[in-house]
Structure formats: structure tokens, C-alpha cells
User: Fold these one by one.
Assistant:
Number 1:
Amino acid sequence: MTIKPNIGILNALIRISLGFTLLAWTTAKLVKRPWRDSYLIVAFVAAMKIGEGIVRYCPLTALFENWGDTQENQNSQQSNEIDTETILPYNPT
């Protein structure tokens, strides 16, 4: 499995800046309330977004692209079967 960049530069810059913003917000909240687990989860998500922006690879985008490709392949196989039935003439004998 090769990992190629699947998001654009502008999308990557947006992910990096929003990731740093969320990470700064959650670390400030964690200083006040360190017992809250929800802030820790948001911090992990923000760090993941920063990483996605730096690498320019989003696993969810790749998953949806691969899922769309499999759906198109299934639809094309079904349409090929339907086309062969409509092309052949009906012979009642």
C-alpha cells in the first residue's frame, strides 16, 4: 500500500491551522480541568489533523475514494449484464 497525498495544499493548511487552534484550546482547558477525558480526546483529534495536514494524507478520504471506486466497478458490471440482455433479440422458438 503506497501512501500518496490525497488532499490539496489549501486543505492541508486549513487542517494544520485548525488543528493547532484546537490543540491550544484543549491544552488550556486541560490545565484547568485535568480529570476531563473529553478534552484529551479532542487533543488527540487535533494532533491527528495536524499530522494529516503535514503529510497531506487523510485516511478517511482514501477510504471514501476506494469505496467509491468499488461501487463504480459493481455498477459497471451490472450495467454490462443488462446491456447484453437488451442487445440480443428475443427468439420465442
Note: The helical segments are 9-32, 37-55, 59-87.
Number 2:
Amino acid sequence: MSGTRALARMYRRFGEVDAAGESPLYERVAVALSGAEEALRAIGAVPARRRNPRVILAALHDLALAGRAPALAASYAVGDGDAAAAAAIDTLLRMTDAVVAVAVRRKVRTDETGRHAVLYPAIAEAARRTGASAVGLIDADCSAGFNLTVDRVRVTYGDGVSLGDPFSPVRIPASIVAGRSVPTRAMPRVVTRIGIDTEPLDVTDPDDAGWLRACLWPDRPDRVERLAGLEAETALTAKAAPLLLRGDAVRMLPDALARVPADALPVVTTTWALSRFPPESRLRFLHHLHEAATGRPVAWVSAEGVGVAPTIPTLGDRRASGHSIIGLVVLDRSAPRPVTVEALGRCWSRGRVVAWTATPRNTDHGS
């Protein structure tokens, strides 16, 4: 019974704190689940690490979108919280095995196309500093691999600067704060796209693409806009499907680096990924980058919380400051200065708001 009580507290807190003001439907459903003992026992059949509300609610949404829970789908469509709560409990009791099956093999995805707004100028800067005319992109903890289409989107910043493909169907708006524009140089040709994830999503698989939609909250005010962006990004990724490596991102990194052609700059990207790794794994990640930089330069572009990415300067900011640091590391053990480490700026809202602080450099190579 103690486990049921713990689940009840978790779901009530999610409804009253996390979903409150964001999703009236999920607020009502989560609170209702917290008071339904039979439903909580059904959730208890899911492995402990997958019992959290975000996973279970996404699993229920997945069944609704697939037409397997029509009453739940109908209540979501009209925004009826009471009906949604009753339908969610009924679905859990009638389809416990189906909910468990989805939850066991899935993790919640928060693929956001706003990340391109920080990745594009940072990758272009890495290429400039090494004189690279081609890059091979490697995204750690890649999910569906959206970061790997960064050269094929169009990013427009609030100060009028635009980067990327002017004809792209994926249009990314981003705000600029602190007054400095991002550099306007173009990214060189991308010759390799590799994603690493313990559970990568293949957007050419309808089941995987459906799961991305299920992870969107059904009544968020911006859901229509986010869904349209998700569909456009999914289609774009499918046209240039990346190589997806299944496994631990740190352990698989040397294999991914070895797959980048010798005449291209390997650029490893991490966006809000390293916080899921213990500190010792983050150091091993950095060690693999150093090892790969023996015969050619290697770059690492990051957008991580303050103090999360090892060696990246924090700009004097405190941890948990509510924003993230855009970092750049260039490693080349054959160069006079084998390591370049810099904080290029800050960002908020997963890249939708950018403060570029790096000073423009006049040199074509090095730093």
C-alpha cells in the first residue's frame, strides 16, 4: 500500500503543480488518477522508472490517437476534463496490459525545433575556427534526430538576422536579447548525420512518429502550432534520415566519431542531454573527444544548464539560474593550442531566446 500512496502523491503533485495552468485536461486527469486506487494499482504494474505521470499520460494519449481508446480521444477532442478523467481510469483498468506495453518500451520525448537557433551559429563557428569545408554531425541522446537537420531549416531571429535554407518548410523563430546578433556565416556542407540514443526514434516508422505526437499535451494552447512544427520537422528528417546508433551515448561515441569521413570536421552536439548522465560519464564523454582529436580536429557544441557541461565556462552564472550556456570546444592535439573552450552565449526556452555574447573574431582559422 505504501507504493500506492507514493504514486498517489506523485500524480496529485503533477496535476496540481506541473500541469496546473498548462493543461487543464492533464491537471484533472492526474488528480483523478491520484484518488483512484484501482488505477494506481494498474500503474504499479509498470516498471518503477516508467510510472511517472508524463509517461503514463503519453501512453494513454498514444492509445487514444491510435483509435484504441475512443472515449478518451473524444473527451480530449472537446476538452472535457471530467470525461477525460473517467475515460483515463477506464482505459487503465480495461487496457492495463496495453498501457504497460507502451510505457515499458517508450520514454517521453520533448523534441523541440527551437534548438536549431543555437546549434546553427555555433556549428558554423566551429567550422570557421578549424577551416572546415564539410562537417559530420553527431547528436548524443538524439531522440528522433531533429538536431541533425540543422542545416536544412530556416532560423529567423528577432533582430532580422536569418540563417539556413530560405526555402525550408521548417521555419524557426527565435528572440535575441542583450543586443548582439548571432554571426551570419553559413554552415558548410553536412556529409554525415549520426544520432546516438538508448531508444532512438525512426521518424520513417509510423509508430515512432505517432509516439512523438502522443508526447504533446492534448490541450496546450500552442499545441496546433507545435504539432504543425513537429509534422514539418518529421518530414524533413525523413528525407535525410540519419544513421541511428542504439546504445549509451558515451559508450557509442568513439564508434560514431570513426564513421565521420577523414576530410570532414566531426561536430558532436548535446542539447540538454548531459544532465541525464552521472558526472563520471560526462568526463568519459570528454575523454573520448580528446582521443578522437589525435589526427584531426574535433568540435563539441553544447546547450546545457549552467555548470552541467564539463569545462564550459559558466559566465559567472549560478547553477539552476533558469537558463543554459551555449558552449563550444575545439580539440586538435596536433595544433599549437590543442584545446579551445568558450561559452558563446546564453539561451532560454530550449533555444527560443538567445543572448550571443561571444566576441566576433577576424581570423579565418584557429582562435
Note: The longest helix spans residues 2-18.
Number 3:
Amino acid sequence: MITLRRLTKRYGDTVAVDGLTLDIEEGRVTGFLGPNGAGKSTTMRMVLGLDHPTAGEALIGGRPYAAIRHPLREVGALLDARALHPARSARGHLIAQARSNGIPTRRVDEVLETVGLAKVARRRAGAFSLGMHQRLGVAGALLGDPQVLVLDEPVNGLDPDGVRWVRELVRAQAAQGRTVLLSSHLMSEMQLTADQLVVIGRGRLLANTTMTDFLARSASASVRVGVPDPAERRTLTGHLASYDGVTAEPVGGEQDEIAVRGRTAEEVGDLAHGLGIRLHRLNGAPASLEQAYMELTAHSVEYGVAGNSAATGEPNRKARV
């Protein structure tokens, strides 16, 4: 488990990370999202002991990273796939890492096979493409067979087959009980990969919830409910409308159907059951992750585009620079 307690990082007058408190649990893939400049990379660097917090703490298994004697055996990380000596071969790069943490050389060959680089293991890594660098970075993260994985944009530069491979790999790691913290700007892929979502903006926590709940509670999500009895339909609509943040309106062209926003299909079904209301249809239509994410972060974008209301949350404003 990764534990953040009031984690804060300041650079002069700039607050990069502002009091983050959360647990990143084992057995699931936690997606880490936020606009550029939100503090994601800084948070990951503090988890890995590369940056020192101004206040608060980041712990891995109850300890700071610096207190772990053989860190590669407990924590695998990929922050910058090109952070290696370009003259070394892929195998030589991993052997150097393995020896620094007492990891057998045979493990190097195993992870090279796992990431699909076995045939180019003796080529100079400096000549690799971005996608090959990413695969080598993932190999380094897996090298010590760690219980915790921290991966920053691991699918950047990969082809569709490589993207799917990373998705299946991290989900398999989580299924084996490992903790996986994964950042990416590819929303469609994150929606397929993550179980849990942590979203930050301007260094502050905006959301920490399951993927299912995050999508269901988006303003773009809706639940279609078919209630054949007009009186029961009015009763259900009235009860739903009494909750803050919930709307319930008739669906155009459908005599007995209402569209509900702000509640999941399960919650609407439970409410109808409690009221003794007979339903003919109950269908959830969740938002896409991109829609839900843009709604949540609209006012947290650090580097918006002039005139782009989706990016800035305010139409026709000048971009922040």
C-alpha cells in the first residue's frame, strides 16, 4: 500500500502538491489523473524519495522509500523511460540495476522476455525508439518482482498492441495482489484499465473513488427509467428531485420514461423498490471517462487554450500562461 498523509510540496511561492491524504491500496489498478501541472509527477517523485516533501509524508508499506534496504525488490517504478546510459545495451542496463539490489541475473532475461525485448537485448539502448524505451522501462520496474508499481505514462509512444499489452500486464499484477499506481492522459485506455481513480488539480485532491462511481455521478451520465403508471412516475420524479445535485425529467418522445442524472441505476432501483413503484425499464448510460474528467477539472487547468471552454471552464477567456 502507498499512504499519503497531508503530503505537500512548495517551490518558493508555488504550491505544487497541497495536503494530499489518501491510501492507494493493493489488489487494484489506481489511475492517477490531473491536468498538466496538477502535481502528479511531483507526487510520484515524493513517493519514490526523489523529492523531499515540504510537509506531510509518503509511505510505502508503512515506511518512506529511503528506509527500504533493497527498493527494487519492493517498489518498481517508471518515471522517465529515457533515463539511462545510451551506450549500454538493454541487458547491460538491467544487469546494472539488478546487481545494485542483489537480484539474480536470470531475472534480467526473464523480464526482457516478458516485455518483448529479448531479441534486441544486446543492442545499444540509445538507438531504441520511444516505444522500445517504454518497454525497457517497464522491464526495470518489474525486475525485482515488487509488490508496488508506480508507472508514469507507461503507454506513451506504444502502438495499439503495446498499449493493450500494458493494460493486460498491470491488471494481471493487480490481480496478484500488488499495488499499481498508473498515470496516463489516454482517457479511453484508463477507462479500460483502472479500478480506482485519484484525480488532482492544482495540487489538491479532487476525487478518490471507484471508476464505476466516478462515471455514474458525472453530469453527462444518466439513468433511463420506465414507469408505466403516471401517478407513480410523478412520485418517483418528486423524490429524486428532492436530492441535491439530482435531476429527473421526462424523456422526449417516451410517454412513460424519465431521465435521471446524479444517481446510479442501482440507487434509482432501490428507491423505486422502497416506494413500491413498478418499473418496466431501468437502464444506466454512464458518461465516458473523458467527459467526467473534463467536468471535474474544468476549473483546475493550469495551461488552457484561449477560447477553449472545455479546457478553461470559462468561454472566451485568455489562456493562462
Note: Residues 94 and 108 are 6 Å apart (CA to CA).
